[in-house]
Amino acid sequence: MFDNLEAPRTPSEPQPAVEWIKKLSQYRDSSPRRSTIELVVTIGPFLLLWALAWWAMSVSYWLTFSLSVINAAFLLRLFCIQHDCGHGAFFKNRTVSDWLGRVIGVLTLTPYDVWRRTHSIHHSAAGHLGRRGIGDVHTLTVAEYQKLGPFNRFFYRVYRNPVVLFGLGPGYLFFVMNRVPLGLMRHVKYWFSAMATNAVIITWILGMLYFGGLTPILLIFLPSTLLAASAGVWLFYVQHQFETTAWEGEGDWQLHEAALHGSSHYVLPPVLQWLSANIGIHHVHHLYSRIPFYRLPEVLRDHVDLAVSNRMTIRESLACAGLQLWDEDSKRLVSFARAKAL
C-alpha cells in the first residue's frame, strides 16, 4: 500500500538539472485506473469519517473531535490530489481533472482556478529573487531586512514566527485570503472561481447549521480543516524554506536548477508519505510537474542521484522553522540571530 523510499547509496556524478527533463518525461503518463483508485481510497474514508463523526455527536463530543482530527489527514490528501489536477497530472483528460479539482476545492476551501494560476506562477518563478510575492512564503534577503524601519522589521518578525506561520496563518489563508482572488483581482475568470466556490461553501455551512446546529461546525468542520491547513502549510514551507535552498537574481537564475536545488526531498515515514501523496519528493515534482504523485517513488527507484538529493528527515526539518532570511553572500537561508552576526 505504501511506497518505499529507502535511498540507494551509490550516486553518480551530478548532472545539469535540465538534462533530467527528457529522462523524467517517460514518467508523465497517468493511469486512469490508478488515479481512480487513489481518489476512491481517499474520498471514501474522508466521507466515512465525516459520517461517523456526525453520528458520534450523539455519543461523545470527544469521539466526534477525535474522528475529525483523523479526517484532517484525508483532507490533506484530497488537497494533494487537487494539486495534481492543477498540474494536469491526475487524469489525462484535462476537463475531468479541472472539474475534479473544482469539486475538491470546495472541501479544501480553495478556489481551484485561482489556486491553479497562482501555483503555476510559483513553479515558474521559484527561487527567483526578482519575482517573489505570489504563491510563495514571503522571504527577505539579509540586505533587504537591514534596510527596513523598526515597524516593518517587527511586522516581518511576527509574520515569520512559527506560531503565526503554522498556527494562525493557515486559518487566515484558507478562511480569509482564499475568499478573493488575490494577485489576480483584475480577471473576471478568477473572481468567478472564487465566488462560485464561496457560494457552495456557504451552502454547505448553512446545511450543517440547519441539520446539526453549531456542533458539527465546531467539532467536525473547523478541526479537520484547520489541522489539514496547518499540515499543508508546513509541508509547503519545508519544501522550499531550508538552509541550502536556492535563490538567485535575474542574471543567475535558471528555472530547472532552481527546481532541483531549491526544493527539498522530505523523507517521511510510509504512512505520512501516503497521506501526503508523495509531495515530499518535491525536487522531482518541480523538475517535472506533470508526473502523477503515485509515480514519483518510481523515479527515485530508477535514478540514484535524485533519490539521494536534498534529503531531509522530519527531525532535520524542525530546524527550518528557525530560518527567516536569505543571505546572498553565503547562499544560505539564515536565522535573524545569524543575520545580525553577519
Q: How is the topology of this model organized?
A:
Elements: H1 20-24, H2 32-56, H3 61-86, H4 94-107, H5 112-125, E1 140-141, H6 142-147, H7 150-160, H8 162-175, H9 188-212, H10 215-240, H11 255-261, E2 265-266, H12 270-275, H13 282-287, H14 296-302, H15 304-308, E3 311-312, H16 314-317, E4 325-327, E5 332-334, H17 336-341
Parallel strand pairs: 1-4, 2-3
Antiparallel strand pairs: 4-5
Helix pairs in contact: 2-3, 3-4, 3-10, 4-9, 8-10
What can be said about this structure in brief?
The protein starts with 19 loop residues before the first helix and ends with a helix. α8 (162-175) packs across α10.
Could you explain how this protein is built, in words?
The strands form 2 sheets. Strands 1-4-5 form a 3-stranded mixed β-sheet. The model has no long low-confidence stretch (mean pLDDT 94). By secondary structure, it is mainly alpha-helical. The chain is 61% helix and 4% strand. The chain is globular and about 60 Å long.
Total of helices: 17
Please give the largest β-sheet: 3 strands, mixed
**How many angstroms does the end-to-end distance come to?**
48 Å
Please identify the oligomeric state.
Answer: single chain
Share of β-strand residues: under 5%
Radius of gyration, rounded? 20 Å
Order of helices and strands: HHHHHEHHHHHHEHHHHEHEEH
According to DSSP, the number of beta strands is: 5
Low-confidence stretches: none
Arithmetic mean of pLDDT: 94
Shape: globular
Q: Largest beta sheet: what is the strand line-up? A: 1-4-5
Find the structural class using helix and strand composition. Answer: mainly alpha
**Helix content range:** 55-70%
